[in-house]
Amino acid sequence: MLRSFKNTFRLTPAVSSVMVLSSLGVTGIGFAQTRDTTAETVKSQKKTDAAATVANSKVQPHAASPARPERAVVASGGIEETLVTAQRRQENMQKVGIAMSAVSGAQLQNEHITSPSQIPQLMAGVQLAQPNGQGAYTFSVRGVTQNDFADHEESPTAIYLDGAYVSQMTGLAFQIFDLERVEVLRGPQGTLFGRNATGGLGQFISKAPTEKLDGYARFTYGSYNEKRSEGAIGGGLLKSGKILGRLSFVTSDHDPIFRNSAGGPRLENDHSRAGRAQLLFKLPEDITLHLIGRIGDQHNLAGGWESRIAYPIASGPQAGYGRLGGATDVLGYPGTGYFNSRNEAKNFANIRTYEATAKLNVPLATRVNWTTLFDYQHIKKDYKEDSDTTPVDYFEYFNGNATRQFSVDSHVDGTWKKLHWIGGFYYLNIFGNYYLGATGSAYGGLNDRYSLGTNSYAGFGQLDYAITRRFKLIGGIRYTRDIKDFSFQETYPGYSYTFNRDTVGSLAHSNTGFWSGKAEATYQVQPNILAYASYNVGVKAGSFNAPLDAGLNPDSSKIPFKPEELEDYEVGIKSDLLHRHLRVNLSGFFYNYKNYQALSFINLTQLVSNAKAQYYGGEAEVKWVPDRHWSVTLNLSYSHGVVKSIDLNGEGARDYQPANAPRGSGNITVAHVSKVFGGALTEQIDSNFITRQYFALTNAPDTKQKAYALMNVRMNYTTPNKKWDFNVSVENITNQHYATTIYDLAGFLGIAQIYPGRPRWWSATVAYHF
After folding, report:
1. DSSP calls for 742-757
2. Which of the four, 32, 264, 327, 720, has the lowest number of CB atoms within 10 Å?
């Protein structure tokens, strides 16, 4: 490992190549006074071209403005500064040596982003996985994901909501509204965020209360009778300004997208409600207490899946895997066709979430703060689908959970001369009762009930030291101990299987400690050009399988699986060129996995096992603002992943392409702003593409999604007084058909089961800001 660390910092071509970029118009090497962090809510100050952030920075509290459609430029005609909290403190994104993307709340509204499932269309190297359709979501970052449909498994892309970790994939099924921004960090973030962030990290940050009364109301009507309303109001509750509050809400409805050719109930509608309440107390001695309460409710007709006819391959390296072909499935029915189901019952996805967060910030001394965050989450989910996609009650899959989670994150951070430091501890308790099974004539009575309890303790610390005004070293370390207890019982008429402490002893219990950390060097080549290289170690905790069909003679030793460890080598350049009219961010990575958690799904049995894996690739993010009217953004990503020498079907060990891991992806946006009747008219066209990918680690031919591209057009008008916005958009304008999940059921049902992405969708929105 030490040798790997040394090799990392020999990657000097990334630094030397930055000198070529400097010839594109960035001159001068002077550095202005920089900023320090005292709170997570800060005032975004415009900077001149000569300004740069090095070791010690200073930021003041601010009052956030209402969300508005994002303009292409700021007043000076350059690209806006983006403030992020990637290192637990507010910083300019261009001064952080992490490959990341951030989207403002204004852009989310302008591009009609209403669900986390739409975030990937804005960012390079980020894909969506939906193992339960509307019942569960997760992100694949650089091709690293978790596509097990058992609810208890945690994703390698950690999700944080206002600083609190969301452990359940069901917890990502929320509405996006009244947000300050969304951040996605690529690569392991195990030092400061820790919990299972080997693939990356997504942060959703709500708009905080302000002293000034402000708010908005927003109404949308669109395809499939879409009716969406959202709004917020906030401000000071006392004349003294010592108590601030904010209320936000959203309602979202649309008719079913699927038709039903068998005459049964139509599926895949939306009926969602969510609300958020915040109180911010400004206590004596500059102490602040921020309370956030959230509730979400989703009651949808769901479980609508398409089918294509498939058959199992008889022999060879792919024996047992499905291939498209044939006329009918095992019940004698043809494939469903696009956005069609033949279900006989009202299938559903019912999800209710409650969450309460309390964040206490206490200044201990000049430039030293103590922050503690308490969070409680309760999630209840019930899901059922028609897996056979026929009007016959043959195989109807269901799953659900009732989960409670409590966490405490407490840390002290500060700045002393050239040193910025942070240290703290983390505690997480999760307890969930889960179920999955099936009804119908094929497997009627299959019922799995299980529980998983997790206690996790961690301590962490990180130091940033400015060797010179340009050169900075960063080092961090984290130790985590996970204690888990698992109990699983499968019943089927005439058969039962139990896995718990009474039947298998210590196999049902794990007590594991592991280290993660980072070592990084950054070099400020010029005020607006940063080069960085880092070595990171991330760990995803081990856990237990909950196979839908454990089989008649299950091997209990295959139920637990080990933690996976990732060594990550990163290099990158962040640059603002041509007097801040051109932004070019480049990053490259190499992943080396030990005990990679590889999910295989064959017929009805899904199992995670450990294997070796390697990934390499990079991202390019370019934004060009030639003048006050035009903006062009281009994001590209390449990721080449291989799971090495694993035998999934008894035909011998071989290499596989990871699931949900397209080699290439990207997006491009072109926007034009003009003055019309004294207001601002924004016209935008954007497109995103994904190359070929498989939705199963087996690389079964019937789980392959061909390369595709989506194109969207949008138009927004803001009145001269900036109080009214009018927006129209058409997404997926070519009505491209594509999948977000495919299951290989060729050997059981004679089909590939497909969950499609949204079809062409138009919408019209009016918003009022005050």
Report:
1. EEEETTTTSEEEEEEP
2. 327
Q: Does pLDDT of 71 surpass 60?
A: no
**Rounded Cα–Cα distance for residues 201 and 159 (Å):** 6
Residue 382 pairs in a beta bridge with: 350, 400
Residue 577's contacts (CB-CB under 8 Å, 6 or more residues apart) are 21, 24, 25, 26, 528, 529, 583, 584
CB 561 within 8 A of CB 545: yes
Contacts for 226-234 with beta carbons within 8 Å, 24 or more apart?
Answer: 226/252, 226/253, 226/254, 226/270, 226/761, 226/763, 227/251, 227/252, 227/253, 227/254, 228/114, 228/252, 228/253, 230/177, 230/178, 232/177, 232/178, 232/207, 234/207, 234/209, 234/210, 234/278
What pTM value is reported for the model?
0.88
Closest CA to 659 of 268, 307, 313, 156: 156
Tell me if residue 8 falls in helix, strand or coil. helix
pLDDT level of residue 77 (50, 70, 90 thresholds): low
How far is the C-alpha of 631 from the C-alpha of 640, rounded, in Å?
31
**DSSP string across 207-267:** PPP-SS-EEEEEEEEEGGGEEEEEEEEEEESSTTS-EEEEEEEEEEEE--S-EETTSS---
In the predicted model, what is the mean pLDDT of residues 194-220?
91
The letter for the amino acid at 385 is: E
Classify 306 as helix, strand or coil.
Answer: strand
| pLDDT > 60? residue 533 | yes
301, 348 contact by CB (below 8 A): yes
- The Cβ of residue 314 has, within 10 Å, a number of other Cβ atoms equal to 8
Q: Please check whether residue 600 is in contact with residue 610, taking contact to mean a CB–CB distance below 8 angstroms.
A: no
Between residues 128 and 341, which one has the greater pLDDT? 341
For every residue of 94-152, DSSP letters joined together read: GGS-S-EEEEEHHHHHHTT--SGGGGGGGSTTEEEE-TTGGG--EEEETTB-----STT
How far is the C-alpha of 207 from the C-alpha of 105, rounded, in Å?
Answer: 8
Dihedral-angle region of residue 342 (phi above 0 means left; psi in -120 to 50 means alpha; beta otherwise): alpha
Calpha distance 175→250 (Å, rounded): 8
